[in-house]
Amino acid sequence: MSRGTADFIGTLYHNVHDRDPEGQQVIDFHTKVAYNTGLVNTVVGFFNSIEYRIKSIPTEETVKKLYCSILNREPGVAEVDHHTQEITRGRSMKDARKGAARAVIAPRPDLTFDFIITLYQNILDRDPENQAVIYFHSEVAKDRGLRMAVTGFFTSDEYRAKDLSTRDCQEVI
Questions:
Q1: Pair 21, 89 in one domain
Q2: Percent of the chain at pLDDT above 90?
Q3: What range defines the domain where residue 22 resides?
């Protein structure tokens, strides 16, 4: 699994739940969720968890935690106001968190760059051609989830030309 994504999950635990994850299995589980459903859904899952909601943290603080978790910085006053207004205008907390997560993840394609490079090396036995290729696959992962990005590698003509057995394919995974 991508170290970058696993490190990101650890950071979410620290920033959202103010604690360490229970163990590597928990990190691996959330990393798998990120691969299957995308980082936005993973981040939203942390903020929608019972553990977080039971704390009854004000919306403004939730927005700040979200920015610190993803961008490693405090949001500006305008950013806090914008996302807080979205919630007070009737948008559900879940939708507002999802919108905020998308807004702050969008400029961070580097969160999945290392994962894309690892896919190339492990599945296609080579490095990606250039940064544009990595960016393209990162956009697929951001928009459609990491599952779609991984599926694209396994269904590519280049991978199919290897004609690997099921056992060999499982070893690659």
A1: yes
A2: 0
A3: 3-105
